[in-house]
């Protein structure tokens, strides 16, 4: 077949891989003057019009899907009735080849590969793309900018998840894939197969990569079919005792015959595996020795042979300052550096002045025969932690190392605390943290306080169907897309997001003019969502719109819990909170609902219109409510789908009519 032209364009040169579903060839693209990889799916000829349409639909979806850990599809088509897919040509090897050569890989390497796979699968599953043939041969290891990058190959068996959460016969053609890596539901050809089948396959891949074995034998397939068999045959901790029984629990969950009992996302599984590997990793103190004397390494390895054997110390060596800086760039987590002063190329004192650029937390101990006061003062001024003289007293060196390592551990712990505080501030606004801090310091500080405030509940409408129809990743992504537009309109005006409640956000405004600022923020958030929808249309992430409930008055703020319970939270209660919440529950798309009492308080500054009487939850009688249109005199939009201008001469498009009916009051 070499020399054959595929699709009237690509000239086949040589075959580089083959399987039951077809073959991979290197081909030359004369139009762009480059070599590509082309897959010919010789076992699947598309003779019917329906099959051709299905292939084109799926190929387009895959070609549009871009991710750094997925091979890029350049083109696709039919050569006669034989489908082909054109991809980027990669250099490297697949994981199957590596495992045949090495049998198994260190847990840290498996964790790194799984992290890359999980990112790619999370993106693919969010788009409704299920691979269905994940195995080592379809995980390719290439190098980009000096880094090993994993790319998922061969979407030849991929299928798109339909919007109604079912697989149609056109979308699923029975039992396809590679038997040793197929989930029970894939073996059975279940019509309801979803992304969790891919997670089973990846679990088999990492089991094999870790242990060199499969979790179950081919003879066990019959048991997998009826769901009675629970692999693996032998607990993986017997093969990898250093990872402990947590590894057994991970694979018991990942390889459960019931998809609902497995991990529900690739990233969840990757995070769980990474935590096990991190917990099992020996915490040896990393010591870099910088000295040009050739016998120093032999001497130190002999002096610390017990510590090296027991994994207490991990030694590395450099011949001068320049060599040491390069080694620190490759391994910046060094704890302690022992360095001489007099060395070629870069001396120890010059090196000392540059250590902080590469490894700011490492501490340096000068070890030198030059112990005059000038060297000592220079070393201390440049940040040396201690100074020892040659010839070394190894007992003194060990005591000094112990003291220095203790200091490094304390500094690293303090740094982690700072990072954790920074992370906490991402979850809790600084204004809330300021209120929480006294609760841990002052007796009786949980008593609470009465304040005048405006409370808002912003709700995304009709969001429940999304949680049933889409993957967990897609649900969270959609929530984030909407809240990233909504929340800044509140926080930029001084509002505080007290908490997110599923598809809603509870916001409070305090201080001077809190009611005016809250109303402006609500109107701005509504307009932002309208604008985003108008650009994206019916397929937009912002199609839901918002319903907002708002009330203002006295609320009670205070802390719940305490140190003795190990849990602390800050809460807000009162009739104002209840009213805002209930109004949000009955608000229609783009409505900002307030009570008659609050409308009178708002006065003439904001324009409101009666929105009828609503059966508000918790109330036995309907409540008269008003919709806040915006600041009086502003360009208020009341027509069109999510805010098309009132003076437009164009008719509302038919597919927007239902939305327009919900907006135009």
Describe this structure in words.
- Strands 17, 18, 19, 20, 21, 22, 23 and 24 form an 8-stranded mixed sheet that branches. Strands 1-2-3-4-6-5 form a 6-stranded antiparallel sheet, with helices on one face.
- The chain folds into 4 domains: 1-89, Phosphorylase Kinase, domain 1 (2-Layer Sandwich), CATH 3.30.200.20; 93-281, Transferase(Phosphotransferase) domain 1 (Transferase(Phosphotransferase), domain 1); 285-414, Response regulator (Rossmann fold, 3-Layer(aba) Sandwich); 444-663, Nucleotide cyclase, GGDEF domain (Alpha-Beta Plaits), CATH 3.30.70.1230.
- It has 665 residues and is of the alpha+beta class.
- Mean pLDDT is 80; it is low at 162-175, 439-445 and 638-665.
- It has 22 helices and 24 strands.
Low-confidence stretches: 162-175, 439-445, 638-665
| Radius of gyration from CA coordinates | 32 Å
**How does the major sheet shape up?**
8 strands, mixed
Percent of residues in β-strands: 15-25%
Structural class: alpha+beta
Would you report the number of β strands? 24
Compute the separation of the termini in Å: 67 Å
- Return the CATH architecture of the largest domain: 2-Layer Sandwich
* CATH fold name of the largest domain: Alpha-Beta Plaits
Overall structural domain count: 4
Give the rounded overall mean pLDDT: 80
* Highest-level CATH class of the largest domain: Alpha Beta
How many helical elements? 22
């Amino acid at each position: 077949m070499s020399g054959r032209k595929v699709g009237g364009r690509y000239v086949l040169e040589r075959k580089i891989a083959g399987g039951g579903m077809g073959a991979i060839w290197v081909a030359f693209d004369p139009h762009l003057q480059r070599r590509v990889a082309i897959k010919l799916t010789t076992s699947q000829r598309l003779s019917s019009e329906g099959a051709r349409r299905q292939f084109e639909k799926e190929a387009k979806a895959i070609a549009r899907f871009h991710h750094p850990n997925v091979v890029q599809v350049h083109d696709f088509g039919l050569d006669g009735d034989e489908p082909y897919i054109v991809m980027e040509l990669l250099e490297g090897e697949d994981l199957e080849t590596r495992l045949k050569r090495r049998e198994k890989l260190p847990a840290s390497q498996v964790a790194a590969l799984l992290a890359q796979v999980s990112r790619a699968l999370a993106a693919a599953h969010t788009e409704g793309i299920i691979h269905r043939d994940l195995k080592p041969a379809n995980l390719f290891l290439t190098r980009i900018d000096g880094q090993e990058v994993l790319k998922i190959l061969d979407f030849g068996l991929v299928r798109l998840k339909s919007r109604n959460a079912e697989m149609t016969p056109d979308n699923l053609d029975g039992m396809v894939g590679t038997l040793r890596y197929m989930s029970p539901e894939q073996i059975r050809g279940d019509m309801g197969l979803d992304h969790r089948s891919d997670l089973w396959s990846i679990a088999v891949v990492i089991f094999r990569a870790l242990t060199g074995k499969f979790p179950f034998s081919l003879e066990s397939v019959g048991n997998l079919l009826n769901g009675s068999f629970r692999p693996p045959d032998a607990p993986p901790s017997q093969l990898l005792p250093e990872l402990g029984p947590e590894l057994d629990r991970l694979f018991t969950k990942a390889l459960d015959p019931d998809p609902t009992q497995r991990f529900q996302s690739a990233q969840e599984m990757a995070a769980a595996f990474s935590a096990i590997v991190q917990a099992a990793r020996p915490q040896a103190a990393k010591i870099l020795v910088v000295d040009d004397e050739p016998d120093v390494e032999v001497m130190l390895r002999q002096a610390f042979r017990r510590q090296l054997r027991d994994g207490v110390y991990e030694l590395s060596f450099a011949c001068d300052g320049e060599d040491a800086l390069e080694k620190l760039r490759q391994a910046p987590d060094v704890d302690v550096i022992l360095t001489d002063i007099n060395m070629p190329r870069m001396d120890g004192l010059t090196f000392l002045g540059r250590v902080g650029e590469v490894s700011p937390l490492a501490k340096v101990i000068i070890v030198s025969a030059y112990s005059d006061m000038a060297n000592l003062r220079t070393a201390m001024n440049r940040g040396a932690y201690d100074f020892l003289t040659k010839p070394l007293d190894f007992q003194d060196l060990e005591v000094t190392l112990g003291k220095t390592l203790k200091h490094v551990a304390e500094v690293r712990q303090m740094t982690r605390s700072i990072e954790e505080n920074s992370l906490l501030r991402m979850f809790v606004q600084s204004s809330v943290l300021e209120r929480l801090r006294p609760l841990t310091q002052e007796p009786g500080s949980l008593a609470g306080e009465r304040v005048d405030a405006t409370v808002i509940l912003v709700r995304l409408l009709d969001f429940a169907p999304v949680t049933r129809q889409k993957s967990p990743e897609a649900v969270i992504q959609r929530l984030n897309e909407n809240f990233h537009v909504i929340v800044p309109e509140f926080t930029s005006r001084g509002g505080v997001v007290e908490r997110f409640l599923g598809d809603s956000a509870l916001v409070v405004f305090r201080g001077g003019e809190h009611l005016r600022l809250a109303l402006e923020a609500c109107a701005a958030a509504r307009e932002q969502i309208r604008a985003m929808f108008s650009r994206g249309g019916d397929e937009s992430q912002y199609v839901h719109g918002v319903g907002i409930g708002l009330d203002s008055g006295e609320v009670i703020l205070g802390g719940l819990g305490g140190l003795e319970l190990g849990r602390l939270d800050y809460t807000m209660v009162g009739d104002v909170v209840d009213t805002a919440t209930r109004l949000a529950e009955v608000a229609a798309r783009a409505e900002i609902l307030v009570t008659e009492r609050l409308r009178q308080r708002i006065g003439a500054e904001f324009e409101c219109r009666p929105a009828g009487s609503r059966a508000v939850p918790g109330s036995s009688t309907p409540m008269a409510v008003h919709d806040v249109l915006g600041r009086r005199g502003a360009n208020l939009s009341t027509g069109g789908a999510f805010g098309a201008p009132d003076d437009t001469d164009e008719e509302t498009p038919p597919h927007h009519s239902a939305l327009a009916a919900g907006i135009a009051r």
